[in-house]
Amino acid sequence: MARTRTTKTVAQRIDLNYFKRPTTFKRVRLFLVILAPLLAIGWLAWQAFVHDPHVYSSGRMSGAHAVLEKQCSECHVNKTGEFSAKAADNACLSCHDGPMHHESQVRADVPACATCHVEHRGHVNIIASSNISCSECHSHLKVSAGNTLYATNIRTLEDGHPEIAALRKDFKDPGTILLNHSIHMKPIRHSPNGPVVQMECADCHRPEAVKASWPYADANYVDAKVSYDTKEVLLPVKTGTLQPRHAMGRAYMAPVKFSTSCAACHLLTFDKRFDIGVPHDKPEVVHAFVLKKFQEYIAGHPADVRVVRDPPRDLTGKPLQPEVRVLTAAQWVAERTADAEELLWRKTCKQCHALNTMKGASLPHVLEANLTERWMPHARFDHDAHRGFSCVGCHPGALASKDTSDVLVPPLANCKTCHAPGPDHAESRCFECHTYHDWSKRKEVKPMYLFPGLQAGGK
Ligand code: HEC
Ligand code: HEC
Ligand code: HEC
Ligand code: HEC
Ligand code: HEC
Ligand code: HEC
Ligand code: HEC
Ligand code: HEC
Ligand code: HEC
Ligand code: HEC
User: How far is the CA of 391 from the centre of ligand 10 (A)?
Assistant: First the structure.
């Protein structure tokens, strides 16, 4: 059959006035157009009536501020008392300080609190600021006066970030305590006739807060008071180092101490007449101790002032009449002390220390230990957050190092194996590794805020 329908006949079937006629659908639509705003206005009115400011909110508050969920005006204040969509820095500062970053920053560039601490993004970590909030300045770093010492084109950890300063060319560990890590990390004798032991890193290195006994300690030395200031063994931390706000005493390793980590094997004995060693202290203290020990000894053994000289043979091997000298007690003490100190300064102490004798001085001076407390003064690190990872994973050099001057902290490339973008990695935005606020400049803020439940009428 031939087709009878043509385009024309089909077109004639269409009612050209269809849109003027009411339909069910249109009636519903009209109804909604009127109803929706009415509902909205009603709801707003109701919310205003019950004082729920949630209506303006663009999202849930961060975890730290969740208690402020209903207290919009704590952050959104404005002079006339009306709601302002901008959160004022002053409002933030009325509850807690957020001290400045650096004296040298260009004032005009300093971002508002809310640039970094974004709100209404849900129950998230309000500290997790974006890379851009830092690279805004650090991708073309400017200082208010003079030149900066720091890398000036950092955009992300992957892009433009410099190597750790301690690992840049020609930097050496300035410490003076001699230690050969390599021989101590292999099986080693406890004492000349003692058992062979395998030491671990933690036998010498632990964070301050760790409470556990030390396998190579000597209680006499641990309990002894020393005349040097134990803080003095550390190099002063570089000025301008920002301290993290929360220090738990587990972030950094405490400086190694002779008393807890060396004393059981490295005896400071000074004469065969005594089992005990000299104090581990300044040469003046050691000298006074040695002198006193010999004085006490000779008082108890007066016959010992009769000294028989060694060796009682001549070069031909014939026994000689022993040369006997009878000394005064004072002479005896002086000779014994000189012998003992010869051994101490030239051998015992010198195994670990550099000693120098000033012209005219009778006693040597032990060089300052100069142990480094913060290897990365410009970044944060926390051993506790990495406690699951083996020490040598980050410090492989410690197994082979023969000299104190070797720097054993890991390169940034090591950090980047874990700290990288993406869900399979640890955080890699700037805030993870850096302190921003200079908390040493923190102003105390008098707490004024009342918990919602305590406020009159539960506002
Ligand atoms: C702890 C402080 C704080 C509290 C409390 C707070 N806000 Fe905000 N709010 C902010 C910050 C920060 C911004 C980001 C705006 C800016 O750059 O100033 C913001 C932005 C906004 C904006 C603008 C839209 C946007 O996403 O930028 C609105 C609207 C808003 N808040 C509503 C509210 C309401 C409604 C409440 C109470 C339920 C509230 N806020 C409580 C800190 C707060
Ligand atoms: C009404 C008081 C109040 C105001 C206003 C306020 N905060 Fe807070 N903020 C708190 C309290 C309470 C805490 C939780 C305790 C603490 O860490 O001090 C907190 C915590 C924080 C924290 C630390 C979060 C953490 O995980 O440790 C940051 C960052 C912060 N606020 C930034 C801001 C910023 C930015 C503003 C302004 C937009 C602001 N606050 C306004 C009371 C306030
Ligand atoms: C350029 C980004 C940036 C700006 C701007 C900024 N902060 Fe911070 N803030 C951070 C970072 C990163 C941290 C975490 C490291 C630290 O403690 O310095 C932090 C930490 C904090 C903390 C402590 C968190 C804790 O419990 O350890 C408070 C409180 C805080 N900021 C408040 C403020 C206030 C108030 C302002 C505005 C005056 C402000 N911040 C401006 C980036 C910023
Ligand atoms: C388990 C016992 C033991 C402990 C603990 C120990 N040492 Fe030793 N140390 C030895 C022995 C044994 C030698 C001699 C090894 C050799 O010469 O082969 C030695 C050698 C040394 C040497 C000379 C290295 C060389 O290159 O000749 C120095 C320096 C040294 N130790 C420093 C220290 C310091 C510092 C401590 C504490 C932080 C310490 N030791 C803890 C057993 C120990
Ligand atoms: C086995 C290695 C070792 C031997 C041997 C040793 N010391 Fe030490 N000495 C250390 C270590 C480790 C420190 C670091 C801090 C501490 O133990 O208090 C130190 C620190 C010192 C200090 C403080 C340095 C400063 O910076 O103020 C003095 C003083 C000192 N020793 C004196 C001596 C004298 C004197 C002797 C010999 C009688 C001696 N030491 C033998 C390892 C040793
Ligand atoms: C995985 C940790 C990590 C992250 C993420 C990170 N840094 Fe660093 N940053 C370091 C370490 C480590 C140093 C070396 C510190 C030192 O040598 O004292 C450093 C040094 C710096 C320095 C000093 C540079 C110099 O010339 O000595 C600046 C500035 C800096 N970082 C900015 C940033 C900025 C901006 C970001 C984000 C884009 C960032 N960092 C991300 C670990 C990190
Ligand atoms: C307003 C611009 C500005 C912003 C934003 C900024 N910085 Fe800085 N930053 C500076 C200046 C200026 C210096 C000091 C340069 C100098 O003294 O030579 C500095 C120094 C540093 C240093 C090296 C010195 C130190 O403190 O150890 C680090 C690390 C650093 N900033 C990290 C950050 C991080 C992380 C952020 C983001 C949370 C950030 N900065 C945001 C301007 C800024
Ligand atoms: C994830 C890598 C990592 C692991 C794992 C790690 N360290 Fe470190 N270690 C570092 C970094 C980075 C520094 C430099 C920190 C600083 O001083 O700024 C450091 C510093 C040190 C220092 C010098 C003192 C100090 O704290 O600055 C000692 C000692 C040390 N580590 C020993 C250890 C021992 C022992 C272990 C195992 C229990 C260990 N480390 C595990 C990265 C690591
Ligand atoms: C016998 C004690 C002893 C043992 C065991 C030991 N150390 Fe040390 N370590 C020291 C002493 C003392 C110093 C300071 C002198 C120096 O820098 O060599 C030091 C310094 C360090 C430093 C910082 C100095 C630098 O130049 O980077 C690191 C990191 C370190 N040790 C890691 C380790 C690791 C990792 C292990 C285990 C594989 C380990 N140490 C085992 C005694 C020890
Ligand atoms: C083997 C993987 C690994 C390596 C290597 C590593 N990190 Fe981490 N780091 C982590 C993980 C995982 C966390 C999160 C731990 C936690 O939840 O607190 C972390 C957390 C941190 C933190 C935050 C600590 C805190 O208390 O919030 C800092 C800072 C940090 N790392 C710096 C570094 C630096 C600097 C290096 C290189 C020297 C480094 N990390 C190397 C896995 C690693």
Answer: 13
Tell me how far the alpha carbon of residue 223 lies from the centroid of ligand 8, in angstroms. 27
Distance 291 CA to ligand 7 centre (A): 56
Nearest-angstrom CA–CA distance, 204 and 127? 35
- Residue pair 294/332 in contact (Cβ under 8 Å)? The answer is yes
How many CA atoms does the CB half-sphere of 261 hold within 13 Å? 17
Kindly identify the ligand whose nearest atom is closest to the C-alpha of 58: 1
Neighbouring CB atoms inside 10 A of 391's CB total: 16
Residue 44 has what pLDDT? 56
Nearest CA, atom 12, ligand 1: 114
CB 200 within 8 A of CB 206: no
Tell me the C-alpha distance between 278 and 79, whole Å: 73
Does position 258 have pLDDT exceeding 80, yes or no?
yes
Query: What tokens appear for 415 in the block?
Result: 């950090």
Q: Say if ligand 4 is within 6 A of residue 205 CB.
A: no
Closest by Cα among 111, 110, 109, 127 to 119: 127
In this prediction, residue 42 has a pLDDT band, given cuts at 50, 70 and 90, of: low
Amino acid 1: pLDDT: 45
Of 61, 43, 60, 63, nearest in space to 52 by CA: 43
- For the chain, state the CA radius of gyration: 38
